[in-house]
Amino acid sequence: MTLDHHAHFINREVSWLLFNERVAFEAARGDNPLFERLRFLAICASNLDEFFMVRVAGLKDQLKLGVGRPDNKTGMTAAQQLAEVANRAHAHVNHLYRLWNKTLLPALRKENIDFVQPSQLTQAQRAHLEEYYHHHVFPVLTPLAVDASHPFPLLANRSLNIAVLLEPIAVRLPHESPLFAVVQVPSVLPRYLELPTGGRKRVFVPLEAVIEMFIDTLFPGHTVLEHACFRITRNADITVDEESAEDLLEEIEREVKKRNRGAAVRLEVQSSMSSELVETLRDWLELEADDIYSIDGPLDLTFLMRFSAMAEYAHLRFPPISPQVPPDFIGENGLFEAIAKRDILLFHPYESFDPVVHFIHLAANDPQVLAIKQTLYRVSGNSPIVHALARAAENGKQVTVLVELKARFDEENNIVWAKKLEEAGCHVIYGLVGLKTHSKIALVVRREGERIVRYVHLSTGNYNDNTARLYTDLGMFTAREEFGEDASLFFNHLTGFADPPAWRRIATAPHGLKDAFLKLIQREIDHARAGRPARMIAKMNALTDKDLILALFEASQAGVEIDLLVRGICCLRPGIPNVSDHIRVSSIVGRFLEHSRIYYFLNGGEEEYYLASADWMTRNMVSRVEILFPVLQDNLKQRLKHILDVQLQDNVNRWILAASGQYEKVEPKPDEPKVASQMQFYLEACGAADETAKAIAESMIPRTPPRLLP
């Protein structure tokens, strides 16, 4: 049987939408705290925005350019993929708003919280809003007429707007069409306003509803015939000719500014909008009928992210966890001394990210440290690591920082930090031409007596202190000489003209990483064919690379037992007889975003464990700078084995991908204890002796089976 057959793969865009459905399930399950459910709904909305801005936009570009090349796995053309995406995305959006209207709004009302429309307001509340509107909203609004002398305005990507149809109060001639105008809902004002109630109940009204209540004040001398909200999503991908760019930083700054002006790819409209007005907007924006999403509820549910963070509702969120001090640092005199003794593994967010920040801060102030080298892909808005790097340069140390300017949607933030680091005296590199530097590595060079010692930190996640509290990632400190040598060669390769070196321990993309993975898979195949036990476990965010999928099919045919923990996109279809029947695919979606990449190979009993910055996606293999590194210390190997074992036993947040391409929720059997892997890891980090932490963790494990909406 040929392995390379369309029926053996799942389309990437379809798989992504299936992932967002699993996120929506977390918003639907009644055993999650209410405000966490709101947060999951906001995440779904934000995910959809990015999906349209990048993936749908890319398919539309292919169609516009007449690119006939079908998807190399499923054989679907761009037109076929867009049709399938539209069909599924419309159903998904309808599901999200049913969830909001039928489940979450009633649940909020039970907590004495309500979102209301103008028709539900009391006279006193209307008077309150009228005063607020005239004093705070009206001065900010700018009505935009659209006619022969005023072309349709270039409305910003993801901005919320109100379309208005008008006619002069004076008699309009029969052949004259209504006048059209646009009012942008100002993003500088709060999206939702609280109304006085005189009781325990809290009532909120959307800002756009307030503007619509008094919209006639913007058009004196005219009668408002119709008004309705709409929102445009635009192509937000940026294209930079890096070969021709004289200054990459300036070129990317220019491209980022164009993001709000990209071609429209989606139009969301209030369900009350007339078909005539919808068609008018569609024509102006040059969209197809499938690109129009009629919304029964507030447009842009991402506002729920801020709403769900309201301090006074902590009881409606997960109890906060306190990341623990990694045990290898307890009782040690200093961080460098601890790393010199042994390799140290950190498991975030269960263990604190502080040692990583402290590693750079300590190096910045230590007179024995000569140099610091680090890659930065996505950093926080007020990054303590960036401040420490700047201070290190001011202290006279050699500081080299590779700031990836092309980190999608973090370009502006990274540009700001790159300039600050340069001003402080750091040697800043803006990535490599044609590649994104996605690797996570920091090197500290320290003089200790007559020796030079290199301390290295490698990670699966970004150097971002904010996301380290939300993403599950693994990082490793080491002072092993071979890792230090590889780290030095790695930075020399990035900053100079050196060819990729012969690594002692690591493997890197784009030169050699895919081959390294293929060889590791082939070794398991050879073991299986020789009659030896053969086993693989791979945990990653996404699996799309065709060569790696075909290698996994071949391994399955040879009898290699394979478990894949793939959080998001998975283009491999498991469970196909004689193709992938030895492959099982799981996905864990829970409180924390699963982000770590772990790769395990039985290797005939000589087990090997690897961590990486890379998923098994083609982009990670050919267009990014990535690092794969082995974990060599026995106790750390055992810890990784435990992490994988617990995740494969999870029966609270795990889904299994069926051969049909659909995901099925894993549920505990009646006599089976609940295993919530994320909370178990937190319990373990706290230690069983800490009864307070144990109680908090146990309270987060769902006790009742979740229920899906029909």
TrEMBL record:
Q: Which residue intervals define the domain Polyphosphate kinase C-terminal in the entry? A: 335-498, 507-678
Catalysed reaction(s) here are:
[phosphate](n) + ATP = [phosphate](n+1) + ADP
Q: Where does the record place the catalytic residues? A: 438 (phosphohistidine intermediate)
Tell me how the protein is altered or processed after translation.
An intermediate of this reaction is the autophosphorylated ppk in which a phosphate is covalently linked to a histidine residue through a N-P bond.
Q: Which InterPro entries match?
A: PP_kinase, PP_kinase_C_1, PP_kinase_middle, PP_kinase_middle_dom_sf, PPK_C_dom2, PPK_N_dom, PPK_N_dom_sf
**Can you give the residue ranges of the Polyphosphate kinase N-terminal domain?**
9-115
Q: Pfam families from the entry?
A: PP_kinase (PF02503), PP_kinase_C (PF13090), PP_kinase_C_1 (PF17941), PP_kinase_N (PF13089)
Domain Polyphosphate kinase middle positions: 125-307
Task: Locate the residues binding ATP.
Answer: 47, 471, 567, 595
Tell me which UniProt keywords the record has, alphabetically. ATP-binding, Kinase, Magnesium, Metal-binding, Nucleotide-binding, Phosphoprotein, Transferase
Q: Which residues bind Mg(2+)?
A: 378, 408
> Which NCBIfam families does the annotation name?
poly_P_kin, PRK05443.1-1, PRK05443.1-2, PRK05443.2-1, PRK05443.2-2
What protein family does this chain belong to? Belongs to the polyphosphate kinase 1 (PPK1) family.
What is the annotated role of this protein in its UniProt record? Catalyzes the reversible transfer of the terminal phosphate of ATP to form a long-chain polyphosphate (polyP).
Name recorded for this polypeptide: Polyphosphate kinase
**Where does this protein come from, organism-wise?**
Alicyclobacillus mali
